[in-house]
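Entry type: protein chain
Record version: 2
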Amino acid sequence: IADRSFSISSASAVTPHRVDLTVAIVNYKTLMQKPRVGVCTKWLLNMELGRTVGLRFAKGTMKLPAGPTPIIMVGPGTGIAAFMAFIDDRVSRNISANYLFFGCRNEHGDFLHQEQLQKWVSCDKLQLFCAFSRDQENTIYVQQRVREQGDLLWSLISEQDAIVYVSGNANRMPDDVRQAFTDVIADHGVDDAAAYVQAMVKTGRYQEECWY
């Protein structure tokens, strides 16, 4: 079968001899009630402990700043994977300007890495904003949380040169999130907010790593 790519969820500076992955098991029924399972994720799920697996490492597209520059991360679902590594690395360097927008369907069903995230929050190393899309009558997604935190985000972007990272499913989410940031910037008096965001992209201050 073809290679499968997964984002690494651990920081090599913290655990140099271990690689953590965040994997969603593909297992559902179609509209015609036919079962569908993921070939690779099913294999991983049933793999025996101690099994040797061949891996190759590919360089990611998102880059962390070397210093304490604030980072704004938007990672619904398994899009959180790389950000777990980001936060782990920065916490190890005592950097606390970490802002994460995470989304999933249900708080008590698929809140990935909940325990570790809450530990970082309790230690003042992370500000966490969650969107649990199905836990209320009206669906809520990460882009709505971005708009709700517009004042904070604009302060970080305009005054502290914060870097924005977006990771996850590439269907609609990246465009919706970029529009949310564009709206936030426009709401704070920038005439051509779309051009402002595009300039952030060109200078590496708005980075996306998304997949289908």
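Comment: The CA atoms of residues 107 and 132 lie 6 Å apart.
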